[in-house]
Amino acid sequence: MKDLLAALRHAAQELVHHKLRTSLTLLGMVFGVGAVIAMLSIGEGAQREALRLVEGMGLRNLIVQAREFDETQLKENRERSVGLSLLDVEAALDTLPQVEAHAAEKAVKPYALFSHFGRSDARVIGVSPDWFALASLDVRDGRLLDASDAAGFAQVAVLGSQAASSLFPRGGAVGGLVKVDHLWLRVVGVLDERELAQDEFEGVKLGGEANQVFLPLATAHKRLKFPKFADEIDAFRLRLAPAADPATVASSLSHLVARRHGGLDDFEVVIPARLLHQHQQTQRIFTIVMACVAGISLLVGGIGIMNIMLATVLERRAEIGLLRALGARQRDVVRQFLVEAGLISAVGAALGIALGIALAYAIAAFAGWQVAWSAHAILLAVGVCMAIGLGFGVYPARTAARLDPIAALQSG
Q1: What share of the chain is helix, strand, coil (3-state, %, to 5)?
Q2: DSSP letters for 31-47
Q3: Which of 12, 34, 53, 191 sees the fewest Cβ atoms within 10 Å?
Q4: What pLDDT does residue 203 have?
């Protein structure tokens, strides 16, 4: 231990004595470690954000959506299919035993939405009682819609946080009245805010609940008007049992709905679990490529260490010869040079960690990406840096140890 501490002190003195050379040697390691940490941290952040986005759709959910058509095409479609309907939901429940819960929705296009205190451009959507649970939404004030609201065609509504602020700027939305077209609704709840970094994931639109008004689907169908050829519902969600395979159930569901629609391709099935898998594969390839590019910087840094140390061997031939003449063994010389290489790598890794943190936050701020720190990423970057530094330091160390002591002294 004493020998190691002495070697560390001597290595530190050598590095401080040659500040410029040491700084140039460190650059490759610093940028390499910084790039690896930044890329892996951004990749980890993207993975977590993707999981958060998919949780909004429901990782165990299947979502069946009606496709949009212009009025002429829609009229032609109705000759073969009535479109997406609640009967499709019932058929799915009767046919697929893997389904644990279900919910349907239908968007309303109001010509007026206001309260006694303000107006809003929020979307109005009729939903079945379990829709909020399947969409992973929680209530902040009041309550959510329930089965009794649907059974009694209750004229009640739940507001998103933004819609509540627009319609009731002074607060106190719960208990207030809002008017959708000709229909007055009493507010029974306000949703908790859920901030998402993006409003689309793998081509599927997400979020927007903050600026929406929800009323019972049964009330919407009974009290409000919809276009003549419109689908009865715009979408429905099915939550599967934990043991069910989403891809297999989705295939059966697609076949079932297609048969009910006369083979017409007027719907699509979204599998959130598959979207997450696709995103993870893409992100994994991106992370590997960027980590490899960053690893090249580490290799360049390692080559820099080897070159500088080879130059140091030539510069310190007389010192090495004196040490050998005084009884130092070859392994002592090897250890001294490896300690210097390790110290350079350690300092480079420490500075690289700081650079990686700063770089990750800078990229995240510029590109709007998420950052998540992983001990695995930091340990990996530091470990690779130390391994490369020591690996490239072996040859110069062995070269120094094999110098002939007499020839080395004479060269000084």
Answers
A1: 60, 15, 25
A2: HHHHHHHHHHHHHHHHH
A3: 12
A4: 52
Q: Are 239 and 58 in contact (CB under 8 A)?
A: yes
The tokens describing 142, both together, are 């009041």
Q: How many residues does the chain have?
A: 412
332, with CB counted inside 10 A (0-12, 13-18, 19+), is middle
* Chain segment 205-243, per-residue pLDDT in tens: 555 788 999 999 999 999 998 988 889 999 999 999 988
Tokens 């530094």: give the residue: 389
**Residues 322-346: tens digit of each pLDDT:** 777 767 777 777 777 788 788 888 8
pLDDT digits (tens, 9 = 90+) for 111-165: 999 999 999 999 999 999 999 999 888 899 999 999 999 999 999 999 999 999 9
Contact between residue 31 and residue 297 where contact means Cβ atoms under 8 Å apart:
yes
Largest CA distance in the chain: 104
User: Considering the entire predicted model, what is its pTM?
Assistant: 0.68
Region 286-310: mean pLDDT is 77
Question: What is the SS3 assignment for 312?
Answer: helix
From CA 321, how far away is CA 78, in angstroms rounded? 95
- The CA distance from 140 to 269, in Å, is 31
pLDDT computed for residue 6 by the predictor: 64
CB proximity list for 407: less than 8 A, separation 6 or greater: 321
- CA separation for the pair 327, 329 (Å, rounded): 6
CB-based contact 309:341 (threshold 8 Å): yes
How far apart are alpha carbons 135 and 192 in whole angstroms?
13
Please report, for residues 118, 210, 212, 219, 226, the alpha-carbon distance to residue 121 in angstroms, rounded to integers and kept in the order given: 11, 12, 9, 21, 18
Contacts of 191 (CB under 8 A, 6+ apart): 132, 137, 138, 139, 140, 158, 159, 160, 161, 209, 210
The confidence score (pLDDT) of residue 295 equals: 74
- Separation CA 102–CA 147 (nearest Å): 13
